[in-house]
Design goal:
The protein is α+β, with helices and mostly antiparallel strands and 159 residues long. The protein is 18% helix and 38% strand.
Length: 159
């Protein structure tokens, strides 16, 4: 792609709105979390979603090992969640210090997020610099009337 085309593609991709989630996975000792904005409903029956995870993230290894994750929807005021989870977490780093959490089989539920979806991975697909997980939604709780944070990027070729 030439520079002009790349610039137009970046601007156009950045206008695709997305929500923001904290994807949590793992149990005692290996639980971790990451910000996820590329999440989309994929099926009605069974209810399913897709979630993109950048290749090489610690969360990828834990999701692969457990086969589960929880999507915690970030509400209208994303500041506290972005501040806490924005840097990411590597192996052995505690991701939930100072937060009100409930550990469940699929992952960690964050009390400060209004909605939580428990998901079981059914497929993993190569999507360039990310893995795209297809997951069945096994359960949900929280306030389904809460307004989510909606994200638009200036440049659709970077975070």
């Amino acid at each position: 792609m030439d520079e002009k085309t790349t610039s137009r593609v970046a601007a156009a991709l950045g206008r695709i709105p997305s929500g923001c989630f904290i994807l949590t996975t793992g149990g005692d000792g290996d639980a971790t979390a990451m910000l996820a904005s590329w999440v989309q409903q994929a099926s009605f029956d069974p209810p399913a979603i897709t979630a993109a995870v950048r290749k090489g993230r610690h969360a990828e290894r834990v999701v692969d090992a457990t086969g589960h994750f929880v999507l915690n929807l970030v509400g209208e005021d994303p500041g506290p969640m972005f501040k806490h989870f924005g840097k990411g977490f590597g192996p052995g780093e505690e991701a939930f210090t100072g937060l009100n959490v409930e550990r469940r089989e699929a992952g960690v539920v964050l009390a400060d997020c209004p909605v939580h979806l428990a998901c079981k991975v059914t497929a993993k697909h190569d999507a360039g610099d990310h893995w795209l997980y297809l997951a069945e939604v096994l359960g949900a709780d929280g306030d389904a009337t809460a307004k989510p944070y909606v994200h638009l990027r200036k440049n659709g070729l970077s975070y």
